[in-house]
């Protein structure tokens, strides 16, 4: 049995932690956020949850399909009965057309993070705990949190935080910068929630648009406030990265009124900036990064191509790497 620290309570961290506990290890999970979920988090409001991050997930591998089946049986996820549509921009002419397909899309209920919380059930989780330094002495890791606390005695550390944050941690700790080649991997996304009259066609609107990548209507999602979530694309989000919420509210209202002909009141609710949201299409996913001799392992959705399913699989791969390395070093003794 090893004592293992997992940094990050998104789906990668949760999947790794659950798998390691099943293998008999003692695991503690740390997250800077107030709750588990990471980019699969929904914001709680009086009217219901708002999915500001991931909107849905698909399952293509056998392993994840099996896991989703279990979550469905446990009532943690449901099939999203969404109508799909395409918003396209043909040289300035915007059109919205139905774009139906047979893809099954799933959502956590009553919020996106439900499956993450379920994986972490019974596993020690320290929230609002930002780890800002790591120290490796005599084959043991100590984690230093920003609030002055420290946590000692870990045999292995799994880093599942986005690469830029991971690189900062390595620099601060004076460790080798194994993240140097992947810091450009994730791009930003501004997400805006609004209440507006229904747009014809579509709960899941894929956008080939100069500013937007996705519009989601939450009306058929259990537990959610019935509103729209607009996700701006990486280019437009990066270009206006530091604009205040008002900018994003105005942009969203203008697009809805002028391009989608939405009439009546538009009530803007929340604007959220994700600095490290989605994977650059043109960059190859790097797989797991590691300092095996020190038992530091790192992965995230970015390791295999940024999607929910890939975060889950990255967690399993991390757990397997720790396990295989333990077996290997045992055999060497
Ligand atoms: P994260 O969820 O980012 O988890 C990392 C965790 O590390 C976070 O909880 C963070 O708080 C924590 N952390 C960071 N630094 C520290 C530190 N120093 N100390 C402690 N904790 C730290 N995928 C889909 O499949 N379908 C979608 O529809 C979809 N839509 C998306 C829409 C948006 C706007 C975004 C942002 C993402 C979307 N994704 C979607 C991608 C999906 O959300 C991610 O692939 C997945 O949630 C990533 O999980 P993860 O555990 O690898 O990373
Ligand atoms: P998926 O199979 O539903 O979609 C994959 C991609 O195929 C879509 O992005 C879209 O471009 C296209 N597509 C699929 N169905 C379509 C339809 N009916 N009409 C038109 N285009 C269609 O889901 P997936 O492969 O699991 O991908 C995950 C989703 O997560 C993608 O939609 C991706 O854009 C989204 N994502 C968003 C962010 C963000 O920052 N907003 C980050 C990561 C992932």
Automatic annotation (TrEMBL):
It comes from the Bacteria. InterPro entries: FAD/NAD-bd_sf (IPR036188). It holds the Pfam family NAD_binding_8. This is FAD-dependent oxidoreductase. It comes from Rheinheimera tangshanensis. The lineage of its organism: Bacteria, Pseudomonadati, Pseudomonadota, Gammaproteobacteria, Chromatiales.
């Amino acid at each position: 049995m090893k004592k293992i620290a997992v940094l990050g309570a998104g789906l990668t961290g949760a999947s790794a932690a659950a798998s390691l506990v099943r293998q008999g290890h003692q695991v503690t999970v740390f997250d800077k956020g107030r709750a588990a979920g990471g980019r699969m988090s929904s914001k709680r409001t009086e009217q219901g949850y708002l999915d500001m991050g991931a909107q849905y997930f698909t399952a293509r591998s056998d392993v994840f399909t099996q896991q989703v089946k279990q979550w469905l049986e446990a009532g943690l996820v449901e099939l999203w009965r969404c109508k799909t549509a395409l918003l396209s921009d043909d040289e300035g002419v915007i059109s919205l057309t139905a774009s139906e397909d047979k893809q099954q899309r799933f959502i956590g209920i009553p919020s996106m993070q439900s499956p993450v919380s379920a994986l972490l059930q019974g596993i020690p989780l320290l929230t609002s705990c930002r780890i800002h330094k790591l120290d490796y002495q005599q084959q043991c890791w100590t984690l230093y949190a920003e609030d002055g606390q420290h946590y000692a005695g870990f045999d292995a550390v799994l880093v599942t935080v986005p690469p830029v944050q991971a690189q900062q941690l390595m620099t601060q700790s004076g460790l080798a910068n194994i993240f140097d080649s992947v810091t450009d991997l994730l791009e930003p996304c501004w997400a805006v929630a609004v209440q507006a009259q229904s747009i014809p066609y579509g709960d899941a609107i894929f956008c080939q648009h100069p500013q937007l990548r996705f519009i989601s209507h939450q009306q058929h999602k259990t537990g959610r406030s019935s509103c729209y979530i607009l996700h701006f694309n990486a280019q437009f989000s990066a270009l206006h990265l530091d604009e205040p919420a008002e900018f994003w509210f105005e942009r969203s209202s203008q697009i809805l009124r002028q391009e989608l002909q939405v009439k009546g009141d538009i009530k803007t609710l929340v604007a959220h900036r994700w600095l490290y949201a989605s994977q650059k299409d043109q960059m190859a996913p790097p797989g797991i990064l590691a300092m095996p001799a020190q038992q530091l392992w790192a992965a995230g959705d970015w390791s295999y191509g940024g999607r929910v399913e890939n975060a889950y699989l990255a967690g399993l791969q991390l757990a397997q790497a720790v396990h295989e390395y333990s077996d290997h070093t045992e055999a060497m003794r």
